[in-house]
Amino acid sequence: MFELTKKFGIDALLGGWFLGGVGGGLPEGGEKTLTEALDIGSVHFVSVEELGENDEIATVSLVGSPVSKDSCIERRHYEQVYRKFRDAYAGELAALTTNEAGAQSISNGWITAAITGLPMLDGACNGRAHPTGLMGSMGLDQIPDYRALQACAGGDGIRETSLTAIGTVQNTSALVRHAATMAGGFVTVLRNPVTAAYYKENAALGTVTQAAEIGRLWRENDRDGDTLLRALAHVLDCRVLAQGSVAHLELRVAGGFDVGRFSVRAGNDVLETEFMNEYLLAELRGVRLATFPELIAVIDLASRRPVCSAQLAEGMDVAVVAVPAKRLTLGRGMHIPQLYEVCEHALGKPLCAYAFK
User: Fold this and answer.
1) What pLDDT score was predicted for residue 255?
2) Beta carbons of 58 and 121 less than 8 angstroms apart
3) How far apart are CA 154 and CA 184, in angstroms?
4) ∠ CA(281), CA(301), CA(252), 5° rounding?
5) What is the pLDDT of residues 290-344, one digit of tens each?
6) Residue by residue, what is the 3-state secondary structure of the chain?
7) pLDDT of amino acid 244
8) Per-residue pLDDT averaged across 131-136, rounded?
9) pLDDT tens-digit map of 74-102
10) What is the pTM assigned to this prediction?
């Protein structure tokens, strides 16, 4: 067991930013959560091995867009969601977990844990960010008789919305996403109880400490781009796919996702990277160099910080890097081929053939 401190939290947010691979929110949201959680009370982390096999765990997440101008999530929403979940749930929660790694999502649950006194698990449903919700459901969508429970709340004034949904993972997730739209774009969610035994088999264990270790390494080596890239290579087998200027950027919104591509010109070569929220594939002269769930990330060499697709601009000096999937903590959803189909359809290119070879 260990306690959340400001230093540990800052490191975890920075490491989570990198592990998000563009997804998982922006660091301002994570920093706000860290400050609020520490102001409320203590947050303790435990490993799943410290729980009994039948102890029950629920996932804390955020759904929607945190930058929506009408979005609002405050302490009362976290309290309301916890009450609604408890009213609908016959069991007793022993711990909470975040849904994924990311600059903000690595902190999901910290405020709820500070309010309730429940410990956070050192883990996540998935140790990297992912395009679709089902990818972070630990395989629960593959269990025909699993009844998902999701409680959510958000918004202010006439937009204030709360919901309790019971049903399949797919149907309840669709209802929560609609509630986020009604609430102004963003809701906090408590969902999908599982036993510690199930979590141990299907979640990404050690994600929070991995994020904090990456964040500490990053801070200690970010004096220049070359030093940072060497440190990432040493610890994560992170390889540089291209280093140069952004030459071309295409972005469109399709089905609620940011979909597009960008190129980086490095000498006479041009690396093409395609994304669906997260960066999903990188190719050089038609040869595939990296494919999701490998972590493809872009580092702004001027600021030496990760950069998402919405922040890219032509002429920006960047390094596109990739971390092998084996060096990440990946949940069950990353090992279900059919969950990749929506991404393949959006990009018009294969993923499974490379991800599962």
Assistant:
1) 63
2) no
3) 8
4) 40
5) 999 999 999 999 999 998 877 788 999 999 999 999 999 999 999 999 999 999 9
6) CEECCHHHHHHHHHHHHHHCCCCCCCHHHHHHHHHHHHHHCCCEEECHHHCCCCCEEEEEEEEECCCCCCCCCCHHHHHHHHHHHHHHCCCCEEEEEEEECCCCHHHCCHHHHHHHCCCEEEEEEECCCCCCHHHHCCCHHHCCCCCEEEEEEECCHHHCEEEEEEECHHHHHHHHHHHHHHCCCEEEEEEEEEEHHHHHHHCEECHHHHHHHHHHHHHHCCCCHHHHHHHHHHHHCCEEEEEEEEEEEEEEEECCEEEEEEEEEECCEEEEEEEECEEEEEEECCEEEEECCCEEEEEECCCCEECCHHHCCCCCEEEEEEECHHHCCCCHHHHCHHHHHHHHHHHCCCCHHHHCC
7) 94
8) 88
9) 999 999 999 999 999 999 999 999 999 99
10) 0.94
Q: How far apart are the two ends of the chain, measured CA to CA in Å?
A: 38
Beta-carbon contacts of 338 under 8 Å, excluding residues fewer than 6 positions away, are none
Mean pLDDT value across residues 277-294: 94
